[in-house]
Amino acid sequence: MDPDYFFSKVNKNYLHIDFPLSKKEARLFYNELLDAKNILSHRFLPLIQFKIRFKKYPSNHKPVLKEREISLVSHHDSGIYSFLSSVINEKYNRYSKIHGISESSVAYRTINHLSNITVAKEVFDFIDMQSEVFVMKGDFKGFFDNLDHTILTKHIFEVLELHKDTLDYNVWLKIINNIENFRKIDRDIFTQTFENENLHIQNRHNVSAYFSSRKDFGRFIKKHKDLITTNKKNGIPQGTGISGILANVYMVEFDEIIEKYSSKYQGIYRRYSDDFIIVLPKKLLNYETFKIFVDYVINLSHNIVNLTIEENKTKMFSVSKGNVFDIKSNKNTSLDYLGFILQQNTIAIRPKSIYKFYYRGRRAIKYSTMASRLYSISKQRSRISNQKIKDLPLKIRSDYNKIYGGKNIFTENIHEQKAKNNRVERIIHHQRSKVGLPEIKKVKKSYLQKVDRAKPRESFLSYVKLANKIFSEGSFGYKLAFTKQAKKTRRKFYKLRRDLT
């Protein structure tokens, strides 16, 4: 593993029991890990878990609020997991080549550096070349949460080729035990207990931690042992640097069987984490054989890896010359894969992604317009109170409340009101400092500029540009709609901005 990459993993600035590592500390810790004995003697800290709310964007519908559990690994533990991830990734790459599954499993890999765009193009190109195919598309229910520990341990040692009673074997046994029987702390309960003890977050060199040392944490947790719970069921946490590659290792037997079966019919099988797709040319099988194959895959998942592929959620398609037919519903439809859809021989970005782009852009443009108005008004007034938003003109206040949830500004809780006050203060500060508003520049860059001017990793428009570039390579018979979709959405943004000014 590259030491600079290691540093990037242990220097992330999130709050945990220990401090993020400085460059010097990271270098020393990296050198320590080169001796396996130091990994064996390392004491792992519990994960800090909490739930975040995020918006899902169904096509042409209002966003739906969802919850997701996040697991934060301590900074030192993150370094160990990342360090060993590179070790097992190398072994897995070798194993997958020998067993013919190197092309099948495409997520969490250190070779090829495949993106979802590249993988999607490969699949759609294969469909295009074959003209007529059957497609099975499915996913494993609760993938990471349901990995069987016995199967995982078996395949880890199979891939690593380690013998019992060796130092490396004992190191991996410890890592497996920590991953499978992970300890966790609920952040909300922990924070409440932390505050009840009149403890304070520690600061050092512009980084923070809950405790200044392991001893301090040890004294705290000795009094509050009930804060830590241990996983006693199947599954591994998703928040570690090693979870992804372990999931690939878990699937080696399943991947090998399905790859051989697909190759028998001159088809392809690709698995991207818990999502998989199988494409089989019609020239070598009929529908009855295809249906038997689908049932076989579903049963194999249960028998080999103890995972469920829900039959009612499994998609079966017949594709002819770029036209997609849903076999179950007996209707023409689209094939959605890794963020792209094939419909009527045209590849487009899926509507959910476009709607998400539009929803966020609409909100950003409304806010930037409000900020511009406030900026202009603050130029004309000798003084605007930084604390009293109610002093703002009615139109500005109304716009502001609409953009930030539509609540009455005088009935909001103190945190919401403070956040709004801070935003207004910042805008006024920019005006008084005679500098422009960054949100104006951000809106132009993220939502209004032409696709061909977007810089790499700058915005969704950058993603559209990259997708168009990758999909345009080689020869193919389908049409591309990426730039057309972006232009249509940009026109809506320009109209919205005109209507607001």
From TrEMBL:
<dbReference type="GO" id="GO:0003677">
    <property type="term" value="F:DNA binding"/>
</dbReference>
<keyword id="KW-0695">RNA-directed DNA polymerase</keyword>
<dbReference type="GO" id="GO:0000723">
    <property type="term" value="P:telomere maintenance"/>
</dbReference>
<dbReference type="InterPro" id="IPR003545">
    <property type="entry name" value="Telomerase_RT"/>
</dbReference>
<dbReference type="Pfam" id="PF00078">
    <property type="entry name" value="RVT_1"/>
</dbReference>
<dbReference type="InterPro" id="IPR000477">
    <property type="entry name" value="RT_dom"/>
</dbReference>
<dbReference type="GO" id="GO:0003720">
    <property type="term" value="F:telomerase activity"/>
</dbReference>
<feature type="domain" description="Reverse transcriptase">
    <location>
        <begin position="1"/>
        <end position="342"/>
    </location>
</feature>
<dbReference type="InterPro" id="IPR043502">
    <property type="entry name" value="DNA/RNA_pol_sf"/>
</dbReference>
<protein>
    <submittedName>
        <fullName>Reverse transcriptase (RNA-dependent DNA polymerase)</fullName>
    </submittedName>
</protein>
<keyword id="KW-0808">Transferase</keyword>
<keyword id="KW-0548">Nucleotidyltransferase</keyword>
